[in-house]
Amino acid sequence: MKEENIILKATRLRKTFHSPKKTTVLSGVDLQVKRGESVAITGRSGQGKSTLLYILGTLEDPCSGTIEIDGKTVLTQNRSEIRNQHLAFIFQNFHLLEDYTALENVLMPAKIARRNTSKGSEAFRRGCELLETVGLSERLHYHTKLLSGGEKQRVAIARALCNDPDILFADEPSGNLDKQSAKQIHQLLIDFSKRSNKSVVIVTHDPELAGLCDTRYELSNGSLGIV
User: Fold this and answer.
1) pLDDT score recorded for residue 2
2) Domain 3-226 carries which CATH code?
3) What burial letters (b/e) apply to 74-94, b meaning 16+ CB within 10 Å?
4) Cα distance from N-terminal residue to C-terminal residue, the chain
5) The whole model's pTM is what?
6) In 3D, which of 197, 194, 195, 112 has the Cα closest to residue 159?
């Protein structure tokens, strides 16, 4: 494996919680993710899968260990910059702004980055294209509270792709969806990775989704092993 093809490298990640009782969920985890690779992290509930995902995505700090994104070591002083430039997230509960339209939600990352999102701008055009890609071109101006669960998750995916991230992190992205909607979300995530040569790291209990990924790991007793 060539080092230049690695977009994410985690080394000896350790994480211990001390309340309500001392619990070690990560005990020296190593992980490398290639550009364009889809990775599933599976395991029983309570093993620390989401914690690992949030640490890899720089949303939480490990007790020890290092993370490199695109060759840069993540530090306190550059964490926000690395996250904004390279990473995006999809959560099980969507986290959409319910009183905003689908398009307004998708454009929110661009607004936060202080990019021009007015009609006709590059960001505006990309937002419309992304919603078309996820099959919601007719829902651009619908408030998200009017959408189904599957449609909301597709808006969340389009929003995550707004700033063209190198790595997409997804935490149980189909956990709240019916079987048919879940299949559509699974395929969207895998297609994104293959078509765009972007990396996807997914925490899931769904064996079907895990089976679609290039590489599958299981987290158990603080250790990460390939399946």
Assistant:
1) 47
2) 3.40.50.300
3) beeeeeeebbebbbbbbbbeb
4) 19
5) 0.93
6) 112
